[in-house]
C-alpha cells in the first residue's frame, strides 16, 4: 500500500494478501500474543478510568476489529489508552453520568474524522526521529519497571499505567518496585521465572517454535497456579486476570450503554470531546510513527486515514458504551515483536477478546498476572536494548541528547509530557543545525587584499536569519564582500532585508558589497518544482 502526499492510502485494498498462508502463519500467533497483552491492559485502564470493566474490553474489541479494518497501518493495534485515564475519570465525574461522557466520546470521534479529512495527520511528519526512538526506549524501560511488581507478587497500581506518579499508596514507580519486595509471593516468582525462560529459549528450537511461546507461558502459568493452590505459594485473586463473566445472552447485551443526547447543549460536553479528540489523535500519531520505525518491512502508514479510522472507532465506542481509544505502542510493539505481517493480527486479537468474554471467561480468570508480566518484560527489553543506545550514540550528540532527554522525561512524567519535552530539545538541535548551514564562507586572495565570498545555500529560511545577521555584522572593516545567491532556490524575505540593509550601511565600516544573482523576491518552490526541476 502506497502513500500519497496527503497521507491517504492509495492503490485499493488487496484482500487476498491478508489471507495468504505465509502471512496467516505469522499473524495468527502474533494475534494471540497481542490478545494476552491487551487483556489485562483493557481491564486495568477501565478500572483506573472509573469506567465499567466491560467498557475496557469493548474498547479493545472495537479497536481490534473496527479500527483494524479501517486503518491503513499494517501493524498498529488500537485500544483503551493509559494517557487518557485522568481525562476520562474527571469527565465521568464532572459530567454527572457515564452516559453523558459517552456523548462526549461520540463527538470526539466526529472531531477526529474531521481532522483526518482536513489532513491534520501530516503533523506526524514533523516528529524528530530521535524523539520517537527515545519514546520507544522509554516505553520499554517503563514496561520493565511497571511489570516487575506483578512478576514477583502484586502491585495495586493499575495495569497499563505509564505515568511516574501513581494513584496507589506507593506514590511512584520506584517506590512501587521497593514495595513489591515486601509483597513477594514465591508462587508468582516461580511462575514468572519459568515464563521468562520459556520466552527466551523456546523460540530458539525451530521444531518447537510452531507453538507460540506466549501461549505456552500462559498454559504453564495456569497449571502452576492450580498446583500451588492450597499451599503457602497459592496466588490470590488479585494476582490473576479478572475478566467480567456473563451467564447468558441477555446479560451480555445488558452490559452495553448508550449516550445521553439530552445533554448535548452542555458546553462541558463539547470541551471534553475536543480534549479527547486532540489528546487521542496526538497519542495515535506518535504511536503510528513509532510502529513504522520498528516495522521490519519499513512500510509507511497513512496518518490521515488513521485519524479517520480512530474517529470511527471512537464514535462506535461512544454509541455502545466503551472508552476512548488510540493506537497503543505497547500492544503494537508486542505485535511487531511477535512477527505480525498484516493488519489481520490486530483484527484477530479483537475477535479473541470477544470470544474470551463470551465463551471462556472462567478459564481466562485462571491466568496469573505474573505470566503476562513475563511476556511484557520481554517486550520491554526488545524496545530498550543496549544496541539501540549504541546506535544512536554513533549518530552524534545532536541525535543522542534529544534521545536521552526524551527517555528521562517520559520515564519521570508520562508519555505526552515526556515527548513534548523531548520535542523541545529535538527542535533546539534542529534549529541549531539549520542556523549553522545557511552559506559557505570563503576568503579569496585578490591582489594585496582578500575578498570574502559568502555563497548562500540552496534554501535560506527564516531560521537562518540570526546566523547570517551575526556573520555580516562581524565582518572586518575595509573588507570587500561578495554575497553570492547563484545556487539559491529560495531566500526568505527577512534574510533579503538583512542583506539589503547591510549593503546600504556597509559604507560606515568602509566595506564594499557586491551582490551576485540575488533577486528582489523569491517564490516558495512547490514540491513538484523541487522534484522535477532541479536547479
From TrEMBL:
Q: Which UniProt keywords apply?
A: Membrane, Transmembrane, Transmembrane helix
Q: Looking at the UniProt record for this protein, which Gene Ontology cellular component terms does it annotate, in alphabetical order?
A: membrane
Q: Which GO terms describe its biological process?
A: transmembrane transport
The record describes its membrane topology as: Multi-pass membrane protein
Q: Which domain of life is it from?
A: Bacteria
Main localization, broad class: membrane
Transmembrane ranges, per UniProt, are 32-55, 61-89, 101-120, 126-145, 184-202, 208-228, 269-288, 351-380, 400-431
**Locations listed in the record:** Membrane
Span of domain SLC26A/SulP transporter: 24-399
Protein known as: SulP family inorganic anion transporter
Amino acid at each position: 500500500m502506497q502513500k500519497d502526499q496527503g497521507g491517504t492510502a492509495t492503490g485499493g485494498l488487496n484482500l487476498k494478501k491478508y489471507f495468504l498462508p505465509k502471512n496467516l502463519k505469522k499473524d495468527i500467533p502474533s494475534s494471540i500474543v497481542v490478545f494476552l497483552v491487551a487483556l489485562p491492559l483493557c481491564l486495568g485502564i477501565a478500572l483506573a478510568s472509573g469506567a465499567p470493566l466491560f467498557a475496557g474490553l469493548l474498547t479493545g474489541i472495537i479497536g481490534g476489529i473496527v479500527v483494524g479494518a479501517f486503518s491503513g497501518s499494517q501493524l498498529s493495534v488500537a485500544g483503551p489508552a493509559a494517557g487518557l485515564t485522568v481525562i476520562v475519570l474527571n469527565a465521568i465525574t464532572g459530567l454527572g453520568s457515564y452516559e453523558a461522557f459517552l456523548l462526549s466520546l461520540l463527538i470526539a470521534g466526529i472531531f477526529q474524522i474531521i481532522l483526518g479529512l482536513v489532513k491534520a495527520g501530516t503533523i506526524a511528519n514533523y516528529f524528530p526521529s530521535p524523539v520517537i526512538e527515545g519514546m520507544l526506549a522509554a516505553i520499554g524501560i517503563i514496561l520493565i519497571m511497571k511489570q516487575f511488581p506483578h512478576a514477583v507478587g502484586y502491585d495495586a497500581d493499575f495495569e497499563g499505567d505509564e505515568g511516574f506518579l501513581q494513584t496507589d499508596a506507593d506514590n511512584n514507580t520506584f517506590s512501587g518496585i521497593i514495595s513489591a519486595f515486601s509483597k513477594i509471593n514465591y508462587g508468582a516468582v516461580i511462575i514468572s521465572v519459568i515464563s521468562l525462560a520459556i520466552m527466551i529459549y523456546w523460540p530458539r528450537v525451530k521444531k518447537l517454535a510452531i507453538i507460540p511461546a506466549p501461549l505456552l507461558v500462559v498454559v504453564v502459568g495456569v497449571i502452576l497456579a492450580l498446583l500451588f493452590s492450597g499451599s503457602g505459594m497459592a496466588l490470590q485473586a488479585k494476582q490473576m486476570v479478572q475478566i467480567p463473566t456473563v451467564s447468558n445472552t441477555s446479560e451480555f447485551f445488558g452490559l452495553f450503554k448508550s449516550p445521553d443526547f439530552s445533554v448535548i447543549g452542555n458546553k462541558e460536553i463539547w470541551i471534553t470531546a475536543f480534549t479527547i479528540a486532540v489528546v487521542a489523535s496526538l497519542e495515535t500519531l506518535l504511536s503510528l510513527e513509532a510502529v513504522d520505525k520498528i516495522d521490519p518491512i519499513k512500510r509507511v502508514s497513512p496518518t490521515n486515514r488513521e485519524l479517520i479510522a480512530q474517529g470511527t472507532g471512537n464514535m462506535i465506542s461512544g454509541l455502545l458504551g466503551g472508552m476512548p481509544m488510540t493506537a497503543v505502542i505497547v500492544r503494537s510493539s508486542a505485535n511487531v515483536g511477535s512477527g505480525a505481517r498484516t493488519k489481520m493480527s490486530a483484527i484477530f486479537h479483537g475477535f479473541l477478546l470477544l470470544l474470551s468474554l463470551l465463551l471462556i471467561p472462567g478459564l481466562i480468570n485462571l491466568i496469573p498476572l505474573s505470566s503476562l508480566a513475563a511476556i511484557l518484560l520481554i517486550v520491554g527489553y526488545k524496545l530498550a536494548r543496549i544496541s539501540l543506545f549504541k546506535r544512536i550514540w554513533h549518530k552524534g550528540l545532536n541525535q543522542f541528547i534529544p534521545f536521552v532527554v526524551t527517555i528521562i522525561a517520559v520515564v519521570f512524567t508520562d508519555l505526552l509530557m515526556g515527548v513534548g519535552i523531548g520535542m523541545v530539545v529535538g527542535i533546539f538541535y534542529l534549529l541549531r543545525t539549520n542556523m549553522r548551514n545557511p552559506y559557505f564562507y570563503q576568503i579569496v586572495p585578490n591582489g594585496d587584499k582578500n575578498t570574502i565570498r559568502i555563497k548562500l545555500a540552496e534554501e535560506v529560511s527564516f531560521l537562518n536569519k540570526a546566523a547570517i545577521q551575526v556573520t555580516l555584522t562581524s565582518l572586518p572593516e575595509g573588507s570587500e564582500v561578495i554575497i553570492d545567491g547563484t545556487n539559491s532556490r529560495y531566500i526568505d524575505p527577512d534574510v533579503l532585508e538583512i542583506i539589503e540593509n547591510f549593503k546600504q550601511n556597509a559604507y560606515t565600516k568602509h566595506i564594499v558589497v557586491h551582490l551576485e544573482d540575488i533577486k528582489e523576491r523569491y517564490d516558495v518552490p512547490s514540491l513538484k518544482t523541487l522534484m522535477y526541476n532541479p536547479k
